[in-house]
Amino acid sequence: MAHRPTRSVLYIPGSNTRALEKAQTLAADAIIFDLEDAVAPDEKSGARVMLAQVLAQADYGQRMKIVRVNGLDTEWGAADIAAFSGARIDALLIPKVSSAVDLDAVAALAPDVALWAMMETAQGMLNAGAIAAHPRLTGMVMGTNDLAKELGSRFRADRLPMQAGLGLCLLAAKAHGLTIVDGVFNAFKDEDGLRAECEQGRDMGFDGKTLIHPAQLAIANAAFAPSEAEITLAKTQIAAFEAAQAAGQGVAVVDGRIVENLHIVTAKATLTKAAAIAALQ
Ligand code: COA
Ligand code: MG
Which CATH superfamily includes the segment(s) 8-223? Predict the structure, then answer.
């Protein structure tokens, strides 16, 4: 299923007026306006009111607008959901979703908006399939910092300790046709580290990466877009396959590799994605 591009998904603390304004011109495919962990407890109520005003007035263009609310197990969750469930946003992002029942509770309070789930607890990993199957869910966001905290795992450049959780959520999202974006890279001045992690997530099948700083946008946008070489190869494969079919053959060969119908599905998806990204510029 084709989704809107979500190569770069930028978190903005809902209390940061300067960043909220700046984001109207930043090259982010999507913005997560955060009321949860990026906002201090005594600022939560004020941030909720201010963010509602900003979203009612400011123009974020084609950028997807996602509001991350506090959990229903906190004193702010219900009011956050009430404040944004009728707003013109693309999704409400629910933190620490551990089971489909967690989503039922939110769905009842917010009947008119798509839901996204933060996947960041051990229970959430184990229940990823049931969570992804929830009829109101359209997206998943990996919360790798919270997951590492819960697992007691250490940071490694190869993210070996994260692979089980990333893989389970990826399988669940793909099985149900959801968008899924990778977790953040904390060292926002380390460009090479970010690029490597983006490429790892892209190679696994993630649709994009969550980001914490504008300096990370260009790297994620490049990593998660089809490259010129991939676009050229896709066109070559499609042409070769059509020629083979016209000659009565079911398979073609390009660059010494077999091209079957299933590769053509991927090639067409690559071109569709490239066109969707080009339409954003
Ligand atoms: N979105 C939009 N703009 C941002 C931004 C963000 N996430 N982070 C920084 N900026 C802006 C700043 O306002 C500043 O703008 P200006 O120079 O035009 O005034 C510019 O980018 C440069 O910022 P910089 O000084 O390098 O960063 P900082 O020290 O002010 O902030 C962080 C660093 C990490 C605190 C900040 O980037 C941040 O709060 N990120 C989001 C954290 C978050 O939401 N976490 C929750 C999910 S993990
Ligand atoms: Mg979290």
Answer: Phosphoenolpyruvate-binding domains (3.20.20.60)
